[in-house]
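Course assignment 3, question 2. Fill in each field.
Student: A.L.
Task: Predict the tertiary structure for the chain below.
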Amino acid sequence: MDEFDFKETPEKTPFRLGAALLNCATLFLTLGALALIGFYAAIFLNPFSELNPLPPVVVVPTALPTEPPTQPTTQPEEPTGTPEPTATATPQPVISYDLQAGDNPSRMNSTIFYPELGCNFMAVTGQVFDNGPVAGLQVHITGSLNGEPIDKIGLTGAATQYGFGQYYEVQLSSQPIASENTLQATLLNAEGQPISAAHSFSTAASCEENLIMINFSKLP
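Answer field:
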């Protein structure tokens, strides 16, 4: 018997209709999905495309009323040059006191009040009356004595060494000096404004007349 070589032939895979249909359906779905993605991409990139079934509605704004232009405000013109200062009226003093009637001024010996000083003293003293002695007013003594200027103030009620009453005192010198109306006495209120006229008086070089008494009283 002859020796033959036998070869196995492969079996043919039978054609399956179901698998082919499934593959075709998968292909169509994939293509459809890609087409749908492209469709939405086109609408997203251009919402006003004809492909968009619901294009956005464009609202045209109405014209807003315009306000009339504002007129520039005119600034007042500043005056040129330096303004002249206005003159202020100086308040006039009210004269409400005068020298007391009688022997006024008068002169006496200062040793009645200053026995220890002897003749080494000369001053002006007195009181101010308005239904009684008044404290807190000023007596201003100005002028010159023996060629030296005098500008001193005494306060009523401050010179208690003269006893009961509201006396003032203004020391003029350490010795009696004669003068002829070179000194003036003026009564001032608490603010330093004159309330009497300036009254001139004289002094003597006598130790018996080295204290000058000048009193003021309220005018009626």
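Instructor remarks: The mean pLDDT is 82. The chain has two domains: 16-57, 97-218.
Grade: pending
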